[in-house]
Amino acid sequence: MAGENLKTLAQEGDAEAQYKIGLNYIYGNDVPKDASKAAECFGMAAEQGYLPARRELGILLASGEGVEQDMDKAVQYLSEAADNLDPSALYHLGIMYEHGIGVPKDMQKCVRMLAYAAEMGYPGAEIDAERVDKILYEERRAKLRARPLLHLQISDVDVEAACCKPMLDKLLNEEIVFIDSYKGPALLGEDEDGMDAVLDACPFCGKPVQIIPRDTKF
């Protein structure tokens, strides 16, 4: 679609054409940059349920660029697109979770979304995913070192406590890692043959893996 044909289709209500004209206004392709006109075009396509337009409108609604800021709608539109594995939506929503913009701050959700976006090749997502993962790694190290060696406990998002010094060392060195498996949260280590295996108990002291609420007080 190009030029007058694109404009005609947009005027006739073609959602894809409306979306593409919106992009032209965002990037200044053949027209002056105009976030307000872009938001108007995205809005028309978004009303028809066109997912890419809802994503782009969500980004503008979150920033308030060219349109009155509306975080509730921004999160709604970006979440819809993210649920359909749209890499741009995953990236932008991930950054919002990192800083608690429009959503509760949640670094675990942030890194997962950034990682998904990175896997799909979204520019900059891999760098940001690695940056946030490093933050989480340092927080995990500090948390595990500060907690008593009594029980082997995990929450729905991370390792929460170690049961003994050998297990603590394995966790700190990431030789045993937390995973979100199809059966739920778990710890992944190795069996006697050196193959990956989900652990039901500590291989050193025998304490069972306990799943606890994320906000448990220690």
Characterize the structure shown.
The protein has helices spanning 3-11, 15-27, 35-47, 51-63, 71-83, 87-99, 107-119, 125-146, 165-172, and strands at residues 152-154, 159-161, 177-181, 184-190, 196-199, 209-211. The chain has 218 residues and is mainly alpha-helical. A hairpin with a 4-residue loop joins β1 and β2. Strands 2-1-6 form a three-stranded mixed beta sheet. It has two domains: 3-132, Tetratricopeptide repeat domain (Serine Threonine Protein Phosphatase 5, Tetratricopeptide repeat, Alpha Horseshoe), CATH 1.25.40.10; 147-211, no CATH class. The model has no long low-confidence stretch (mean pLDDT 95). The protein is built from nine helices and six strands; from the N terminus they run ααααααααββαββββ.
Major sheet: arrangement of strands: 2-1-6
Give the H and E element order.
HHHHHHHHEEHEEEE
Mean pLDDT: 95
Low-confidence stretches: none
Which architecture of the largest domain does the CATH hierarchy give at level 2? Answer: Alpha Horseshoe
Into which percent range does the helicity of residues fall?
A: 40-55%
Measured between the Cα atoms of the first and last residue, the distance is 60 Å
Return the CATH class of the largest domain: Mainly Alpha
The structure class reads: mainly alpha
